[in-house]
Amino acid sequence: xxxxxxxxxxxxxxxxxxxxxxxxxxxxxxxxxxxxxxxxxxxxxxxxxxxxxxxxxxxxxxxxxxxxxxxxxxxxxxxxxxxxxxxxxxxxxxxxxxxxxxxxxxxxxxxxxxxxxxxxxxxxxxxxxxxxxxxxxxxxxxxxxxxxxxxxxxxxxxxxxxxxxxxxxxxxxxxxxxxxxxxxxxxxxxxxxxxxxxxxxxxxxxxxxxxxxxxxxxxxxxxxxxxxxxxxxxxxxxxxxxxxxxxxxxxxxxxxxxxxxxxxxxxxxxxxxxxxxxxxxxxx
Length: 284
What we know:
Elements lengths: L1 E3 L6 H4 L9 E4 L9 H7 L2 E3 L6 H16 L2 H9 L18 E5 L3 H14 L2 E5 L23 E2 L3 H4 L5 E4 L13 H6 L5 E4 L8 H9 L5 E4 L9 H9 L3 E3 L8 H19 L10
Parallel strand pairs: 1-2, 2-3, 4-5, 4-7, 5-6, 7-8, 8-9, 9-10
């Protein structure tokens, strides 16, 4: 068995010669795109995850990135550290209260973030999520009416992007979502808008994002996930070095409690499966 928190599992690590007795991979987290699916399916290796297990922690970090950018925290901190006297009038910032937030995706993390934004900051939520039921997050949702959150839905990204102040990504990385945000989409955003990505790095075209930030097409970006991880200055010198970018190395679910509980749950899933019970939270 493998209990997986971070990293990748390649075909060379999962094939018959490398792991002849492997029966189950239990992911401490939601996404499984870092596990070589074809090899697992071919060999009958069960893969499980923990949907929603880190939702509150990732939503907390997404909110942190939003506030850090909209209050110019990193920029002003760096100015102070450099010895500059910073009168408050020279550090005015847009703030978050009452802003329009665009969410791509309606999973558990997006839901937790939306609750924080609506109830804590009186934000308006606009969502693009073509695969989600129209009743989701509404009082008429048959499975969870208590999860209702005031929001509107956009039929397309082109409808969503021009009207929002913050774009926060919460969709999985799939062939159809790779580079979902690229040059045409960035051009539709307000020049005062910021982008937050706590989902997967490949959803954003990073070269296009760097160009948009460099040219002032958008105001900033908060990035916790990258096309190549871990992010290094050799690979991402420009993005990491920009004053209007907050860069983190995929810390979304990395709180003490979430990591401990997630690992314990993953071990329990493996133990039960090896004892002959059905695999809980089986992905494939």
